[in-house]
């Protein structure tokens, strides 16, 4: 890319993701990303004031693309069983997190680190996920598959109660032999609760 | 202590806990503990072959004393509401973990680290906790407060579903303003499930 072209946020994040993957989050600086884009670091600093904000923005985009958008496609489906849709939503979340923890370990490690620092961005992300769950629960309340609850409160409770299976601090436990059986028994209990 | 006295396991663990608290788990060696006990490190190595096994044994004793024994006192109570006893058991677990994370941060950090390494010891500890929960659930099934379940499976599911509130990887989240409200909504959902 030449520095004659306007520097879009997408182009910066593409370059930053590449550089972060190559050197790792600890060794990547804003200057490295500016170099990859062939712009001065002054130019890049006008868009991202720090290495931390660049890392956060790359993680945010990654979470949108690999987690939020595919799950939104499940949440917006209508008709059929809300119970099945809710389970598909959670199984997709869990399967995706596990696959990335294994196959894209650099990005996953960066995400796990950002989780501890970028509290506000992660809260927004989690609230978007909980909103998707709440919409499925509302559908299930309408079809009388589920009892009547405050959808957001119940959605948050189910999300928290399944933390073991999707929160990155538990990633080491996801390769356990018993993890699927454990998910099944937690899921049965939660479904007894809402059905 | 003189090296003329027999070296009991308790005496070694007392000395090791003191030394670990003073120097921290990373800097403490078996030799430091031997010196505190005024025995040769050869003598100590006959009891504990490595720094890791000493650390594990100190953590195991600590978990027994501060977690397992007080919770056993709740589990063995009989009469009264099993629902209330189950909630008291969990609230005690959660309150104790949180208090130690704040007020005994050296031991808590060592416990959190050992959790990742001493998988077998931690599994045994967790199984002992789950057995206590299962006994309360059995009482609740007898009194018809709870529906009929396989007590151990349900106990494990409830333990896992409340991980956010007691698993040491989540310790940073325990000081959140909303954590008590989150526990209350997870708890309500789990109780709907079993009641």
Q: Mind explaining what this structure looks like?
A:
The structure is a homodimer of 195-residue chains. With 195 residues, chain A is mainly α. Chain A folds into two domains: 39 residues, Orthogonal Bundle (Arc Repressor Mutant, subunit A), CATH 1.10.10; 139 residues, Tetracycline Repressor, domain 2 (Orthogonal Bundle). Helix content of chain A is 74%, strand content 0%. The longest helix of chain A has 25 residues. At the A-B interface, α8 and α10 of A face α8 and α10 of B. Chains A, B: Pfam families: TetR_C_27, TetR_N. Chains A, B: This is TetR family transcriptional regulator. Chains A, B: Keywords: DNA-binding, Transcription, Transcription regulation. Chains A, B: It comes from Paenibacillus germinis. Chains A, B: InterPro entries: DNA-bd_HTH_TetR-type_CS, Homeodomain-like_sf, HTH-type_TetR-like_transc_reg, HTH_TetR, Tet_transcr_reg_TetR-rel_C_sf, TetR_C_27.
Largest sheet of chain A: none
> Most extensive chain contact?
A-B, 26 and 26 residues
CATH architecture label name of the largest domain in chain A? Orthogonal Bundle
What distance lies between the first and last C-alpha atoms of chain A, to the nearest angstrom?
55 Å
Structural domains of chain A: how many: 2
Question: CATH superfamily name of the largest domain in chain A?
Answer: Tetracycline Repressor, domain 2
Keywords (chains A, B): DNA-binding, Transcription, Transcription regulation
Pfam families (chains A, B): TetR_C_27, TetR_N
Organism (chains A, B): Paenibacillus germinis
Domain HTH tetR-type (chains A, B): 6-66
């Amino acid at each position: 890319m030449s520095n004659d072209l306007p520097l879009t946020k997408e182009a910066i994040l593409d370059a930053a993701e590449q550089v972060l993957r190559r050197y790792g989050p600890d060794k990547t600086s804003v200057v490295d990303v500016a170099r990859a884009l062939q712009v001065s670091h002054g130019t890049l600093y006008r868009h991202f004031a720090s290495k931390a904000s660049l890392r956060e923005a790359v993680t945010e985009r990654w979470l949108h693309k690999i987690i939020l958008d595919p799950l939104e496609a499940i949440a917006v489906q209508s008709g059929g069983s809300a119970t099945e849709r809710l389970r598909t939503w959670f199984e997709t979340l869990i399967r995706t997190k596990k696959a990335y923890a294994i196959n894209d370990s650099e990005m996953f490690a960066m995400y796990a680190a950002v989780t501890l620092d970028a509290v506000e961005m992660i809260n927004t992300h989690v609230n978007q996920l909980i909103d998707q769950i709440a919409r499925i629960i509302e559908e299930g309340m309408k079809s009388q598959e589920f009892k009547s609850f405050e959808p957001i409160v119940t959605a948050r409770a189910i999300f928290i109660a399944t933390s073991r299976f999707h929160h990155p601090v538990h990633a080491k436990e996801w390769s356990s032999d018993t993890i699927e059986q454990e998910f099944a028994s937690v899921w049965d209990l939660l479904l007894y609760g809402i059905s």
